[in-house]
Amino acid sequence: MNSKVFKILGPGILFASTAIGVSHLVQSTRAGADYGFTLLWAILLANLFKYPFFEFGSRYASTKGKSIIDGYAGMSKWMLYLYLLITIGTMFFVSAAVCAVTAGFLQNLFGLKAIFGENSTLYTNSILIIFGAATLILGKYKTLDSIIKLIGITLLISTLAAFTLTLWNGPVSEGELFGDFSWKGSDALFLIALMGWMPTAVDLSAWNSLWTLERIEQTNYKPSLKETIREFNFGYLVSAFLSVCFLTLGTYIMFDSGETLSGSGAVFASQVVTLFTSSIGEWSYIIIAAASFSIMLGTFIAVMDGYGRALSRTATLVLKKEKDTSKAYNISLLLTASGAFGLIYYYLISAQNGQGFKSLVDVATTLSFLVAPFIAIANYSLVTNKDFPAHGKPPKWLRVLSVLGILFLVIFSIFGSIEIYKLYF
Questions:
Q1: If you ran DSSP here, which 8-state letter would residue 354 be given?
Q2: Most-buried pick from 39, 75, 384, 413 (CB within 10 A)?
């Protein structure tokens, strides 16, 4: 691999890491454990129809030399305000959900329940939030980039090994591998939650553009549009393939086995690690536990960084400042961390006594899906309007896929809104 490839590699890997976290380890595994392969279509369609809007984030940054958030500001001040509202409305839930999942794997890896007792959830989440914020304030993108590349390959190898051995050994259940699914009630809400972060939330597409620009500044190398898109596609395809791997693991090992996934983060983490070790062997438990925690830690830090960058850039544009400052980034980071901890305290510690893990994840993923159409339409408009350079405009097949993707997101957002209304009102 030549030095130029190393200079390009980064934003796509960060994207894959962000996606592999909750949507794969949690939601894909739950889908397989509860419904078998019944929801495979939802995972495949979400990956397909969301693809253009993430790609547009990288495309815009490479072509225009600025983030897609700057593009929102150029569209109208109302679009910038809408993105700011969406960011503030989702960042605490998303950060809290990712932190809660990461804390579960941390507790499982080191047996922190036995050390901290009843306060293990509080202490573990506090440690993670402080560590994540400190890492980014002190090391910023360079540290994040190094962490992701180091641990990403570990999870990729272990997942592929578990996936291959699981297929070789066959499913635990001797019956059908497709479960019952109802288009209403809790089944419908889980479907929306599953697609909400599959592969991740559409509003996170702005992070691609921010990371692309940061990588250029870090390496002092400006890749071509083709190189930028190729690097992003690599990360996206890896993420999409792994989502099917986790669905398969959940289906083959847990579906129709009589075992259900726990609502407690630590217990859930242990169950996920067991999915791997039941295929690879008990000897691999500590390796898989460490790899799973590592990728979740990378995801958590990436999410913190993404929201810190997005919020600081948006605030800079709203306040009409000349450019971002490290102070604005640090303030945004600390605000994200504080809000995330507040939600964790409510869902996992105070209101639900540690059992609100699934609820927190489902709320975060559902919110992300409901706001997705607005970001999808904005991203499409930015890269297809007459002012966008001709050499950077997406090809016809991608524009067609974009229109289909917008219809897909709008239809399921309306469907999800109706189901939420019927269930709670």
A1: T
A2: 39
pLDDT average, residue stretch 236-262: 85
Say which residues have a Cβ less than 8 Å from residue 79's Cβ, sequence separation at least 6: 72, 73, 378
Query: CA 80, CA 314: separation in Å to the nearest integer?
Result: 7
Distance between CA atoms of 342 and 92, rounded to whole angstroms?
A: 8
Buried b (16+ CB within 10 A) or exposed e, 186-202: ebbbbbbbbbbbbbbbb
Query: What residue ranges do the domains of the chain occupy?
Result: 8-424
For the segment 279-289, what is each residue's pLDDT rounded down to a tens digit?
Answer: 777 877 887 78
332, 136 contact by CB (below 8 A): no
Dihedral pair phi/psi, residue 168, rounded to 5°:
-65, -45
Cβ atoms of residues 337 and 165 within 8 Å: no
Angle at 257 between CA 252 and CA 261, to 5 degrees: 85
Which of the two residues, 380 and 170, has the higher pLDDT score?
380
What residue type is 358 in one-letter code? Answer: K
pLDDT of 209 higher than 70? yes
Question: What is the Cα–Cα distance from 172 to 161, expressed in whole angstroms?
Answer: 18
Residue 39 corresponds to which tokens in the numbers above? 């929801």
Q: Provide CB contacts within 8 A for 320, sequence distance 6+.
A: none
pLDDT value of residue 141: 63
Q: How far is residue 72 from each of residues 35, 65, 153, 376, measured CA to CA in Å? A: 39, 14, 35, 12
Residue type, 78: W
Give CA–CA dist 344/362, Å, rounded.
14
User: What is the CATH number that goes with domain 8-424?
Assistant: 1.20.1740.10
Q: Please give the single-letter amino acid code of residue 201.
A: A
- Tens digit of pLDDT for each residue in 368-383? 788 889 999 999 999 9
